[in-house]
Design a protein that fits this description.
Length: 210
């Protein structure tokens, strides 16, 4: 067991196969960083980020790249030494990105939320090598937070009113109306679970029916 003292708020992190833990650290509105802490609790590296807003969660690709978002920017960092691969703005400064998700084919998918009056949301497909916006689907009501995939590369996500299923091309297959859904996962029977309520909603992934 070990502990690691931090000068700021530790954001959501990611663990690799070697036991190294990667986490964001939010010290103040002008100081954000990513830290890599090895399995013995020793700091491997720390990378200051040119950002001014707290981080969403981190995801780690099979190619050894860490992806995270802050406000309307996507950041890619090499896990071995913490060097920045790219930072990329997505849209205007009024947008807020969700935690990115890595699809099985390597593309990043991210929720793009516009919280201004009459705001809408997008689910955007992002090039993992450059951070460029490849394609997207638009939805009413902002609030996308989490994205999960099934074995067929279908995408499931939610905002503050609905759970959605989209196919590989980001075409909507169904939407399921649930007030304030939270935390999607799959059970052993490959049903989709919404963990907001107790007991959880069980959603049929084929039909979208609860």
């Amino acid at each position: 067991m070990w502990s690691f003292k931090s000068a700021g708020l530790v954001e959501n992190g990611s663990l690799d196969a070697a036991g190294t833990y990667y986490t964001g650290v939010y010290e103040n509105s002008k100081t954000l960083s990513i830290r890599a802490i090895d399995k013995d609790g020793q700091l491997k590296w720390e990378q200051k980020l040119p950002l001014s807003f707290s981080l969403e969660g981190l995801v780690l690709s099979k190619k050894g790249i860490i992806y995270t978002t802050s406000k309307n920017q996507i950041v890619a960092i090499n896990k071995e030494d913490g060097s920045i691969k790219f930072t990329k703005k997505v849209g205007s400064d009024s947008l807020q990105l969700s935690t990115p998700a890595i699809r099985q084919d390597g593309f990043l998918l991210v929720g793009v939320n516009n919280y201004t009056q009459n705001g809408t949301s997008f689910l955007a497909k992002i090039d993992p090598n450059t951070g460029s916006w490849v394609s997207s689907s638009q939805f009413p009501n902002p609030g996308f937070k989490q994205i999960v995939f099934d074995d067929q590369l279908n995408l499931y996500t939610y905002n503050n009113r609905f759970v959605f299923k989209l196919d590989y091309q980001l075409n909507k297959k169904w939407e399921c109306s649930i007030n304030f859904p939270f935390k999607l996962s799959f059970d052993f029977n490959k049903n989709l679970l919404n963990m907001h309520d107790q007991p959880a909603h069980i959603i049929n992934p084929i039909t979208g029916l609860v």
